[in-house]
Write a structure and sequence with these properties.
- By secondary structure, chain A is α+β, with helices and mostly antiparallel strands.
- Chain A has 12 helices and 23 strands.
- In chain A, the strands form 6 sheets. In chain A, strands 1, 2, 9, 10, 11, 12 and 23 form a 7-stranded mixed sheet that branches.
- In chain A, a hairpin with an 8-residue loop joins strand 18 and strand 19.
- Chain A is globular, with a radius of gyration of 22 Å.
- Chain A starts with a helix and ends with a helix.
- With 120 residues, chain B is mainly alpha-helical.
- Chain B has one domain.
- The longest helix of chain C is centred in the first third of the chain and has 21 residues.
- At the B-C interface, helix 1 and helix 2 of B face loops of C.
């Protein structure tokens, strides 16, 4: 069918290709397809807001751009607080903009364990390069924030490998930084190429009838109500994120290897106090990460504004006021691990899916190791007091105190969080353990594809958005070429 | 006299912020009220299957003092409320601890957000 | 902004609060430096109901009296005409009505008439008296209302005042006149009406009702503190369009209020007291509240039941915003305020032996 004919026939009720979700996976897919002349409709559950409409990491941003206002939890022992973007541009609008390629050893493992083909480092290199150009992935032109440099100096002191992670930022001649995101890059390009965007529209269920997909949606109305909407598509690309994609597919009766292998980067935090000033109002995103123990354990510095410091001090309430009075001397650091596995289950009656996550004793051991490494690094960086997010543990003030950290953290006392979710619909040729083929095509449902973090086979050990975009680009081009 | 969800949230917020955070003693009514309103807003945005149980649990906590004191938690003095909050936080029953943690986390996050945004 | 040379129109001038504000304008407010001396060349016009009189000390020759009723738009036009650039201080309101609909006729429609008349006459600003009732009762005993607290009107009176505030906001938004809303809780002080005297008598006779523990708190506003707040609302530029709570520095518990009056009666006014309270279970307030609600639903109003229903409630507000933005500084607190009230009563033979 010629694109023009397609757009006339689908105009209001759908498109030749409908993409659900406008995060990095959906935005890249919609953009490339539209630029290739395809008729594309992009449906986004969240509101259409510009990058600058909310202040980064503020409560206002959480309210308007995060799913459930940023308060979502994977139930388990311990439960894990997680957060997802829910707005035009998805997670790219609310994150730190730190960028990583998929580590080569991870790609190797995906090949051997999941039968993922045509996805070697060399296969993906052109896709990484293209995305890096489009988003202007670059190093800081000026000095990194002090809290970030502290972590780096601690690692150097110990002889550990630590790097500055590049970010998707543009800098003008004066060094003024402008963060990049989907609404700054791929989405305007998609619109330019004729893609139509329908925000505030949530896909409830999809049905396949007579070679087409019918997508039943509920749409927010201007008066705060809801109305039903239905779109029709020949090709349907689902890119709703690692939690919502499996929830939608399972609600729609598509279940094989879907939603049973959710993975996170379970993360534990530490508030560190230094004798000198390391923090200031509006301190930018920390950029250093310790890679010595990658991919199993990654160390880094988190957003450390007073409210975030307060939240990280929840397990040490007696010291909260004291730390906050001295907040310019304090920052939040994290140790990120790979362990555990979870599931996404749609519930009858309710709109939000149940997310569960389990960690083994070994996973709790990894977290303990990560915590110990992080504390070592921060002490080496000159911190004089450390508060881990573990009830009853700490404060840690010297090397000897590290012995207080048990070989495995107690599930009942440990507070974990994550902002990375993936692997709920893994890709590869091993049909027994994957939901899609190596190019995101859902098994046994012709025309249905997944293009988000769900298809990453296992935790990449780094921020997954670089991987999501590279695979989205690779798979979109394969679709256009009639391969994959 | 009857247990109330929003009154309980206000009462919990006032008590937690007073005990935990600096600067909540004087001249901070507007900020305290904003924090409580913020927590009510967060509750209303929670995943739907958590919203109702948390609401019921909160009303349950509010009503749990009726038998012993004749009054719901929100009508007790701050000192009496705080004694109970401390006990619930240290409970061996983890769902109870989680309810308190939900309010405590949002109260301190909200409070320092207000103070910081106000000061910025 | 100074009051010197201004034209001021006061509604409800013959009422308790009206007299307090008139006294402040004519004689000054000794407790606040900005108003210690009365303003110069002030032109005052007062709306007084046909059957009301101003007391002699509020100088009939200094005040132009307009007789009329807020419910009649023509009276309001007559009240405001010819005073371009004037200041309206709208204090008239009905608290204890005969029938419920009168609350709306006076508090909402009457207010609309007079504010519209002031706007049409080219007045600069209107200060409008509201109440604690639009926001209801505090959710817990140590809670304080601020100006952002949501509306949860208490009964019909609260609803009428909420509608009044909506009228004010609407007129301000239209840009026709600057408005300031002043919300005051229970006030007290000299020139009080008989119902306040009855309260003192109950305390003396040991019949002051205490519901439950009596630790519930009430914000109160000493009449001169309130007059200070109203004059500040009238004169501070940045107040335009805003709402302010005006009350004493802090709320008092019911026990503190009763104990203070009892102590003063005995030690300074030589009135022996029974040293008892009419202790009623907390639930009495709830029962009275239900009865009040049922009666009001039928269009009736019973003052004693209404007042009883509020006796176990905490109704307390914060004056932080008025302090911060208006420079409000309430100098008189409960003991001194009650002392002045009792002295005024004694001087006017109103304090029962």
């Amino acid at each position: 069918m010629a694109p023009e004919a397609a757009s006339t026939s689908y105009r209001n009720g759908g498109a030749e290709t409908v993409v659900l979700g406008s995060g990095p996976g959906g935005a890249v897919t919609a953009c490339l397809l539209a630029e290739a002349g395809r008729d594309v409709l992009l449906v986004e559950e969240g509101p259409s807001l510009a990058l600058g409409d909310t202040e980064s990491f503020s409560r206002d941003e959480m309210r308007r751009k995060y799913r459930n206002g940023g308060v979502t939890v994977a139930l388990g022992n311990p439960s894990i607080a997680y957060a997802e973007g829910r707005c035009l541009g998805g997670g790219s609008e609310v994150n730190s903009g730190l960028y990583h390629r998929t580590p080569p050893e991870v790609l190797d493992r995906w090949q051997t364990e999941f039968g993922l083909r045509d996805a070697t480092e060399a296969d993906l290199a052109p896709h990484f390069e293209a995305c890096e150009r489009d988003l202007n992935v670059s190093l800081l032109p000026a000095e990194a924030p002090p809290a970030s440099l502290r972590l780096h100096s601690g690692a150097e002191h110990l002889g550990w490998r630590s790097i500055e992670v590049p970010r998707w930022y543009r800098y003008d001649a004066g060094g003024q930084a402008r963060r990049q995101s989907m609404t700054e890059t791929y989405l305007p390009r998609a619109v330019q190429a004729g893609c139509r965007i329908v925000p505030q529209t949530r896909a409830r269920v999809i049905r396949r009838e007579a070679g087409q997909f019918k997508i039943h949606c509920s749409q927010d109305t201007a008066d705060g109500g809801q109305r039903q909407a239905e779109f029709v598509a020949k090709t349907l690309v689902v890119a709703c994120g690692a939690v919502q994609t499996p929830a939608l597919l399972r609600r729609s009766g598509i279940r094989d290897n879907i939603g049973r292998t959710l993975h996170f980067h379970p993360t534990i935090k530490v508030v560190a106090r230094f004798p000198e000033v390391v923090n200031h109002a509006g301190m930018g995103v920390p950029v250093h990460q310790v890679k010595e123990f990658s991919p199993r354990i990654g160390l880094g510095c988190a957003i450390s504004q007073p409210p975030h410091l307060a939240l990280a001090m929840l397990d040490h309430p007696e010291a909260l006021a004291e730390v906050l009075a001295d907040w310019q001397h304090c920052a939040v650091y994290y140790a990120m691990t790979l362990g555990g596995a979870g599931s996404v289950t749609p519930l009858p009656v309710f709109a939000d899916p149940l997310v569960r996550f389990g960690l083994s004793a070994g996973d709790m051991g990894d977290l303990a190791t990560g915590l110990r490494r992080l504390c070592e690094c921060l002490l080496a960086a000159g911190a004089d007091l450390l508060f881990p997010t573990v009830r009853g543990l700490g404060p840690i003030a010297c090397e000897a105190d590290l012995a207080k950290i048990p070989p495995a953290l107690s599930p009942g006392a440990t507070s974990l969080m994550t902002i990375h979710a993936f692997s709920s619909c893994p890709m590869g040729e091993d049909a027994a353990r994957t939901a899609t083929d190596s190019f995101g095509r859902v098994r046994d449902v012709p025309g249905l594809r997944i293009a988000d973090a769900s298809i990453l086979c296992s935790p990449p050990g780094v921020n997954p958005q670089g991987s999501v975009m590279a695979f989205a680009r690779r798979n979109a081009l394969a679709l256009l070429e009639g391969r994959g | 006299m009857t247990p109330s969800f929003s009154a309980a949230v206000f009462a919990l917020t006032y008590s937690i912020v007073r005990e935990r955070c600096a600067g909540a003693e004087e001249g901070s009514t507007r900020l305290l009220n904003r924090v409580a309103t913020y927590i009510l807003g967060c509750h209303s945005r929670l995943p739907d299957f958590m919203r109702v149980p948390l609401r019921l649990a909160t009303i349950g906590l509010d009503g749990s003092t009726l038998l012993t004191t004749g009054r719901p938690l929100h009508l007790l003095s701050h000192e009496e409320r705080w004694r109970r909050i401390e006990r619930w936080r240290a409970s061996r029953f983890s769902p109870l601890r989680n309810v308190l943690r939900f309010y405590e986390g949002l109260a301190v996050f909200g409070w320092y957000g207000e103070v910081h945004e106000d000061g910025a | 902004m100074s009051l010197d040379g201004r034209s001021v129109v006061i509604t409800g001038a013959a009422g308790w609060l009206g007299q307090g504000v008139l006294a402040a304008l004519l004689h000054g407010l000794p407790d606040h430096p900005a108003f210690a001396q009365p303003p110069q060349r002030l032109e005052i016009r007062a709306l007084v109901l046909p059957d009301q009189e101003l007391p002699g000390d509020l100088g009939a020759e200094d005040v132009e009296i307009v007789r009329g009723d807020l419910r009649r738009p023509a009276d309001c036009v007559r009240l405001c005409e010819g005073l371009e650039g004037g200041l309206l201080i709208h204090l008239a309101g009905l608290i204890h009505p005969g029938r419920i609909r009168e609350l709306y006729e006076v508090n909402v429609e009457g207010a609309r008439h007079v504010i519209e008349a002031a706007a049409s006459a080219g007045f600069e600003r209107a200060v409008v008296m509201s109440s604690n009732s639009p926001v209801g009762c505090n959710p817990h005993p140590d809670h304080l209302f601020d100006e952002e607290s949501p509306y949860r009107p208490y009964m019909h009176y609260g609803r009428s005042k909420q509608q009044l505030e909506a009228v004010v906001a609407e007129v301000h938004a239209a840009g026709r006149i600057e408005t300031v809303v002043v919300r005051a809780p229970w006030f007290y002080g000299p020139r009080q009406p008989a119902r306040q005297t009855a309260f003192f008598t109950m305390i003396r006779d040991g019949k002051a009702p205490i519901l439950g523990s009596g630790e519930n708190r009430r914000s109160m506003s000493y009449i001169d503190n309130l007059a200070q707040g109203i004059l500040l609302a009238a004169t501070v530029s940045r107040a335009a369009g805003n709402t302010y709570w005006i009350a004493d520095e802090r709320p008092y518990s019911m026990n503190e209020i009763v104990d203070t009056v009892e102590h003063l009666l005995e030690t300074e006014f030589g009135r022996g007291c029974a040293h008892r309270r009419l202790r009623l279970p907390y639930v009495t307030g709830e029962v009275a509240g239900l009865a009040d609600w049922a009666l009001q639903g039928l269009g009736f109003y019973q003052q004693k039941i209404h007042v009883l229903s509020e006796m176990n409630k905490t109704i307390a507000c914060s004056v932080e915003r008025a302090r911060r933005e208006l420079g409000y500084d309430p100098k008189v607190a409960l003991e001194e305020g009650m002392r002045r009230s009792l002295r005024w009563l004694e001087d006017h033979d109103g304090l029962p032996r």
